């Protein structure tokens, strides 16, 4: 993860994700399209939160506006870390006010750490969740229960 400034996001690239503006009741959903540059220009309205994923560049961005400042994290996703069809580390979450989106997909990352309660053996601890796009439709009963 790299902390970056909001103006360092490539606005010409295509993204899947959303940006929720301070003056809107629902987020602006992007499905493989370039970002609206006007959202990044002014002080008001501002981006309350956003999650963006660019599959071709293997980058994900998490945007939060807190106490008058933007907090933007950039994540690089390795090829061996995420396979859309076979990753056991994908978590699904139900969307809030997003049309035509069945679920938000996040890649759960883990880190081995020594644990004194396990005789100092290494255990995996969750360290970050990285947005990797949307699930377009639910296929089975198991998919309906988003974790």
Sheet with most strands: strand arrangement:
1-6-5-4-2-3
- How do the SSEs run, as a string of H and E? EEEEEEEEEH
Instruction: Quote the distance from N terminus to C terminus.
Output: 23 Å
Q: How large, in whole angstroms, is the Cα Rg?
A: 17 Å
Oligomerization? single chain
Describe the protein's architecture and organization.
The protein has 147 residues and is mostly beta strands. The chain has one domain (2-78, 85-138). 3% of the residues lie in helices and 50% in strands. The protein contains one helix and nine strands; from the N terminus they run βββββββββα. The strands form two sheets. The chain has a six-stranded antiparallel β-sheet with strand order 1-6-5-4-2-3, with no helix packed on it. Strands 7-8-9 form a three-stranded antiparallel β-sheet, with no helix packed on it. The longest helix has 4 residues, at 141-144. It starts with a strand and ends with a helix.
């Amino acid at each position: 993860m790299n902390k970056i400034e909001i103006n360092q996001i490539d606005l010409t690239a295509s993204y899947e994700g959303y940006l929720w503006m301070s003056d809107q009741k629902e987020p602006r959903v992007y499905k493989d399209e370039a970002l609206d540059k006007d959202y990044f220009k002014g002080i008001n309205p501002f981006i309350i939160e956003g999650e963006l994923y660019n599959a071709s560049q293997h980058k994900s961005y998490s945007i939060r506006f807190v106490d008058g400042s933007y907090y933007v994290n950039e994540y690089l996703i390795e090829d061996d870390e995420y396979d859309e069809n076979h990753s056991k580390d994908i978590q699904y979450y139900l969307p809030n006010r997003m049309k035509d989106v069945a679920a938000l997909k996040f890649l759960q990352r883990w880190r081995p750490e020594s644990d004194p309660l396990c005789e100092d053996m290494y255990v995996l601890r969750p360290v970050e969740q990285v947005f990797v796009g949307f699930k377009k439709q639910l296929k089975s009963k198991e998919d309906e229960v988003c974790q």
